[in-house]
Write a structure and sequence with these properties.
The chain is an alpha/beta fold. It contains 25 helices and 31 strands. The protein binds zinc ion.
């Protein structure tokens, strides 16, 4: 077997708990199978006989088909896949398209307003407050979300004093805080056991309590009274509610908040620290091999470095769940309100030292699937009757094993070829799809990339057009190609446009490119078929010639009006004509106001912020755009949009086309080649080169008792189950929420199978399958133990951003706070040891959950500030919808890395410090990154040596703050910081433009809004205040 071959590693031969080990009694009573449940006719034998094609060609010889080694011997290119029969094309044609992605939902987003927290009713209350229920009106109260009426729970008499918990976090014990009692007086901090400043939490700990415990020194009564952050309306706070004490979403905010009598300084180290949690996990699980052989195993944090070995469950890089133990019943699920969801990144990049996904080829027989539910063969399937049949673990249907797939069982009841077959022993693998997984039963053509450049006045003048054309000459040599292939199979085409479109014939036989102009943009068509989409290698000369000419051709243009929708239309038409899928790279700069379909008008009205109508700012324009998105998805046409705006361009509408087609949006405000050129080119290169699958459709199947109900991502939903993506790349993640529809069994657990059917970059139709098994428990404590905060926050971010299309952002924020309190209150009530109400008790796995939730509410999209540009907010919203867990984690809690004091001899990135201004020092230098932005902050008293070493200037005053990268200087400090920046950049899907910030300069404002533990510059509470607020909510729920 070649080194590429699939070799069972030693651990494989050991029993694998959680897989294979399904109760044997399982097989006995096949429930009456309903064949064809999903549309395929019942077939007694061979699965999936390609409908009518090749009838008996596959005469199985009774032995496993193709030799194992050649079968999945070659690792496949990391690319997408996807399952499910291919009903997509027809589906898209009909009328009943439900708008954008999600089935229409009632706009009611339950307002918490009516829920009073009577004692003893906690359970009921909690069950009516699901955030997961955004948009579904399970609550009867038709109460308008308008709610200036403040939710009752918040109507406390008067803002009790804010306290700050002095508290201690015993290492791994659930943190407990004696939080914010409405007290006024101030016990000395010393008495409360608060750690001395600066002392690591772990040392300040109180004696651990058993069980749920946290402990805390008793009676901390107090925290210095603070002027009501939550209580009073804060003047100037854009989000403050009208009534004092009554605005959940509105905590804090404004500048007024911190005003007031000087307060006793509370130890910020006393509240749970994200950086500490990250460090602890790295220390405990970093560098280790994570084998996926256990059901319900909670993986290391996304921030931890670890190596994955697939032993039957998908790597956490592909699937990460909010909880790894699901509650058995829907009552329990409703009671705790912990969302049950998984975040799937089907093409996640697999590090070099991990095994790539194997490709399995069953030849003409195609993948083996359950006759009833259509689940794919996987390690969980249970073989019975000597191997002649197998029981589907998803639906219990008993299926015949096709003759060609038969294998004997060993004494443990396992197939003897178990470890030779990826689909029987691995959590993730791919199948080669047969023709009946292809549109019209024809193998697909390789995809095409079409570059569409806006050549209106602004783009010419800024030098952007020239920059793009120059770059493409070399970039096109890096189009993605199949592993081992000599060159890329992807074809390329070129269009330029302003009010009209120009198509180019770049056929290799031509001496000069030819331009064809289409000036009637109302009925877009492609004026040439032959010579428009070509192989770059073959047409290199003509293409380079064209790229040289474009900037000159339009050098004198005075045209400033543009069209947009016809450009996308032209792209789709070109792909249709070539019968292929592909991607449009659109480089656009202005609001498309020229007379044409999809003409947009300026609807930016910041007066709507914080009103009922704020949501309209984020709702895309429909009509033409809706139809266009539908056509794009049907054709497998992904739209990547690079926008270079000087003013409002309606990102909510233009960017939505990208989001619905699995594409990306990049935005460069006030683009200047000098300042932003590298940043943009770096994004463009990554985008062109990244691994990707096209024309994809994904289905998430589950074992009985629960099912996928909500889907968030850069996706298109035409019905309630099929997740369509014109393309899906290695950075795109889909968040899927589950709901119970029956009781789950502790014995069999809960199984999830995600199958993605897609076209690879060389035009092969494939299926990528990811399987994951979870535990189930009737104990809520088991659920809380297995929670994954980073995944939870990804879910909350996407569900909240989805909800804000139909609800006022204030309502969305209120629900986030309420749900945070409910989740924690339920833990306190059901899982923690009894303790004084003054203590805040957090589940260990969720101890930093509040800081993320607070951070989420301060994001541009949700903060509701008139100071932020509407396009920036819309952009942020769209961006987040497709993020994976790793990206949402760092976005909501950026890394703040001190670089003035690091060990110059070490190669590792220094440990991050808490994201707060308090951690900055005048003499220091800090890097801050959140995956989208990168800042280098320099303290006023920063050492001149450091400045000299990094910038080659004698002092801060000499420093040009406009520089976006560090000069390459030959000294250790410079090299090391540049190396750190390079390491960080490589970890992120986007390039980040470095911004130099001098302490106290104006640019510091931009930087400070990323200090997530502090009060938000545009509104939003500090972490400490938020925690106290939540604690009060919890206490109310519990009394
Ligand atoms: Zn089944």
């Amino acid at each position: 077997m070649s080194q590429q071959g699939y070799v069972a590693t030693p651990p494989y031969s050991q029993a694998q708990p959680g897989m294979g080990g399904y109760p044997t009694g399982f097989g006995a009573t096949p429930s009456q199978p309903h064949y064809g449940h999903y549309g395929t006719p019942p077939q007694p034998f061979a699965p999936q006989q390609p409908g009518g094609l090749k009838p008996a060609a596959s005469s199985p010889s009774g032995m496993p088909p193709p030799p194992v080694s050649s079968q999945y011997g070659s690792p496949i290119h990391q690319n997408g896949t996807h399952p499910q029969k291919f009903p997509p094309s027809p589906a898209v044609s009909a009328s009943a398209i439900s708008p954008y992605g999600q089935p229409p939902q009632r706009p009611t987003y339950h307002s918490m307003a009516q829920v009073t927290p009577p004692t003893q009713q906690l359970t009921n209350q909690m069950s009516s407050m699901s955030i997961g229920g955004y948009g579904q009106s399970q609550m009867q109260s038709p109460q308008s979300p308008t709610s200036s009426a403040a939710p009752q729970p918040f109507q406390m008499p008067s803002p009790p004093a804010m306290g700050h918990p002095p508290l201690s976090l015993p290492g791994s014990q659930p943190p407990l805080m004696s939080a914010c009692p409405p007290v006024s007086s101030v016990p000395s901090m010393g008495a409360t056991g608060a750690p001395p400043m600066g002392m690591p939490n772990s040392q300040t700990g109180l004696p651990p309590m058993v069980g749920g415990g946290f402990q805390q020194a008793a009676g901390p009564q107090g925290f210095p009274p603070q002027p009501g952050p939550y209580g009073g309306q804060v003047p100037g706070s854009p989000i403050a509610g009208p009534q004092a004490g009554a605005f959940p979403g509105g905590f804090p905010g404004g500048a007024g908040h911190m005003a007031g009598p000087p307060q006793k300084k509370l130890d910020p180290d006393s509240i749970p620290s994200t950086t500490q949690v990250i460090e602890d996990d790295q220390a405990k699980r970093g560098g280790q091999l994570y084998t996926t052989n256990l059901r319900g195993q909670v993986p290391p944090l996304v921030t931890t470095d670890f190596t994955v070995q697939d032993q039957g469950n998908a790597s956490p890089r592909f699937m990460r769940c909010t909880a790894y133990t699901f509650p058995c019943t829907s009552d329990l699920a409703k009671q705790c309100q912990v969302p049950l969801a998984t975040i799937i990144k089907p093409f996640a990049t697999v590090p070099q030292n991990e095994t790539p996904v194997y490709l399995v080829n069953h030849g003409e027989a195609g993948p083996i699937r359950c006759n009833r539910c259509k689940a794919y063969m996987c390690p969980f399937m249970l073989f019975i009757e000597g191997g002649r049949r197998y029981q589907c673990v998803f639906c219990s249907c008993v299926n015949e094993v096709p003759v060609h797939y038969f294998q004997h069982l060993d004494h443990m009841g396992r197939r003897v070829d178990l470890y030779e077959r990826p689909e029987l022993s691995l959590g993730s693998y791919e199948f080669t799809a047969t023709l009946d997984y292809c549109k019209n039963n024809k193998p697909p053509n390789p995809p095409a990339y079409i570059f569409m450049i806006d050549v209106s006045y602004n783009n010419i003048k800024s030098g952007l057009v020239k920059l793009i054309c120059e770059e493409l000459k070399t970039l096109l040599d890096h189009l993605p190609k199949e592993e081992g292939a000599e060159s890329s199979a992807i074809k390329v085409g070129f269009v330029t446009y302003n009010k009209v479109l120009h198509f180019y014939n770049v056929k290799s036989a031509l001496a000069q490119p030819q331009m064809m102009v289409v000036s009637d943009v109302t009925e877009m068509f492609v004026p040439l078929l032959d010579g428009f989409l070509v192989n770059f290698q073959e047409s290199r000369n003509v293409i380079n010639n064209l790229l040289d000419q474009i900037p000159d051709m339009f050098a004198d243009t005075g045209e400033s009006e543009t069209v947009f929708s016809p450009v996308v239309q032209a792209g789709v038409e070109a792909l249709k004509a070539a019968e292929c899928s592909g991607k449009l790279f659109i480089f656009h700069s202005s609001l498309p106001t020229a007379e044409a379909p999809g003409k947009l008008k300026n609807r930016d009205d910041r007066k709507l912020v914080n009103t009922e109508k704020e949501k309209t700012l984020f709702q895309p324009q429909r009509g033409v755009y809706e139809q266009l998105a539908k056509e794009c998805v049907a054709q497998g046409c992904c739209v990547d949009l690079f926008v270079f705006p000087n003013q409002y361009v309606d990102i909510a509408t233009m960017g939505n086309i990208s989001t619905l087609t699995g594409g990306s949006v990049y935005k460069y405000n006030n683009f200047q080649v000098q300042m932003d050129g590298d940043h943009f080119l770096s994004d463009l290169r990554r985008d062109v080169e990244k691994s990707i699958g096209f024309d994809a459709i994904m289905r998430v199947r589950t074992s009985t008792g629960f099912r996928a109900t909500e889907f968030f991502g850069a996706i298109y939903m035409n019905n309630t189950t099929d997740i369509e993506m014109a393309a899906v790349d290695c950075d795109k993640a889909v968040t899927v929420e589950f709901k119970h529809d029956d009781t789950l069994s502790e014995e069999t657990g809960a199984l999830i199978q995600c199958a993605l059917l897609y076209t690879s970059i060389n035009g092969q139709r494939r299926l990528r399958v990811h399987n994951l098994s979870l535990n189930c428990s009737s104990q809520l404590s088991e659920l809380y133990k297995s929670c994954e905060t980073d995944a939870l926050i990804n879910f909350f971010a996407k569900s909240a951003y989805h909800a804000m299309l139909t609800q006022p952002v204030k309502t969305v924020r209120e629900i986030l706070v309420k749900q945070t309190a409910h989740m924690l209150a339920c833990y306190r009530k059901n899982c923690a040891n009894p303790s004084a109400a003054s203590q805040l008790i957090l589940p260990d796995a969720m101890k930093v959950f509040p800081v993320y939730m607070n951070s989420l509410m301060k994001t541009p999209a949700l903060v509701g500030s008139t100071e932020l540009s509407t396009d920036d907010r819309a952009f942020h919203r769209l961006k987040v919808m497709s993020l994976g867990v790793e990206e949402s984690q760092v976005l909501l809690y950026p890394r703040l890395i001190p670089v003035h004091s690091m060990d110059i001899t070490s190669e590792t990135v220094p440990a991050a410090v808490r994201c707060s201004e308090e951690r900055l020092t005048e003499t220091g230098a800090f890097l801050l990154e959140n995956g989208q932005s990168l800042f280098l902050w320099l303290g006023q008293a920063c050492s001149p040596d450091l400045i000299q070493n990094l910038f080659n200037v004698p002092s801060l005053a000499h420093l040009n703050p406009d520089m976006t990268s560090l000069p390459e200087l030959d000294n250790a400090h410079s090299k090391q910081i540049r190396s750190i920046i390079s390491v960080i950049s490589k970890q992120r899907p986007n390039s980040m433009k470095m911004v130099i910030v001098k302490q106290k300069d104006r640019s510091e404002i931009q930087f400070r809004q990323h200090l997530m533990e502090d009060k938000g510059l545009h509104g939003g509470a500090s972490y400490m205040d938020f925690l106290c607020y939540v604690h009060r909510e919890i206490r109310q729920l519990l009394t």
